[in-house]
Amino acid sequence: MTIKTSTVPYEHAGDSLNGFLAWDDAAGEPRPLVLVSHAWGGQTDQEREIAKYIAGLGYTAFALDLFGRTGKDRDENRALMTPFLEDRAKLQSRMTASLEVARAQAPAAHAAAAIGFCFGGLCVLDLARIGTDLRGVVSFHGLFHKPDVGKAETIPAKVLILHGWDDPMAPPESVLSITEEMTAAKADWRLHAFGHTMHAFTNPAANDPDFGTVYNERAANLSWKAMEDFLTEIL
Question: pLDDT tens digit string along 23-76?
Fold first, then answer.
């Protein structure tokens, strides 16, 4: 196995973006595509490493770029994310465009899924919400805010939600809300909730309990395994 990578420049709505493609160069057949959606700070080494990890599982992976740059601190991260939270049509359009770019890099891989982290978890849920042609989406410690636009009557993609029960950014009432929303849309959904687990639990650099972001190795390992099983099932 030899994991190859390349930067994929693309544009959307006047913004210059850079995706990150990873694949196994030794693969002799088309591999399903997995889109990787970043957290609120933009595409970083973390998402690029996740893309390489996904490629090592036997998929073509594409780490998208929503912002065209990365934030340097929480204030910058919030400034990058907020316009997309306030304009979900723009978010959905950019996510769809990023998926189209990713599919163009792996034209023979018709089957596709998307995974996302934190804000990226909300992004891939929005792809499912608008009825995108995906086999499934995985939200890791995602946000659950409902969009006010773009909602399909039914959600064809299977949905896996991996959630820390003590996540202050997605409290229990929002968890109940997302399950009711998925049920109403007739989605094939499942939820894994980890007790005593905060936001950003898959990020080894997360260590701020006052902010609510803490790495949890056990929950991270269990969630990676759940994702792998889910991708094997749907792809």
Answer: 998 876 789 999 999 999 999 999 999 999 999 999 999 999 999 999 999 999
- In tens, the pLDDT along 196-223 reads 999 999 999 999 999 999 999 999 999 9
- Angle at 85 (CA atoms; ends 224, 152), nearest 5 degrees: 75
Report the predicted TM-score, pTM, of the whole model to 2 decimal places.
0.97
**Beta-carbon-side half-sphere exposure of residue 179 (alpha carbons within 13 Å):** 14
**CATH number of the CATH domain containing 71:** 3.40.50.1820
Binning pLDDT at 50, 70 and 90, where does residue 107 land? confident
d(CA 141, CA 164): 6
Note down the domain range covering 26: 3-234
Q: CA-based angle 82:91:15, to the nearest 5?
A: 85
* CA distance from start to end of the chain: 20
Alpha helices in 57-171 (DSSP H): 74-86, 88-105, 119-129
**Based on the structure, what is the number of domains in the chain?**
1
Distance between CA atoms of residues 201 and 207, nearest Å? 9
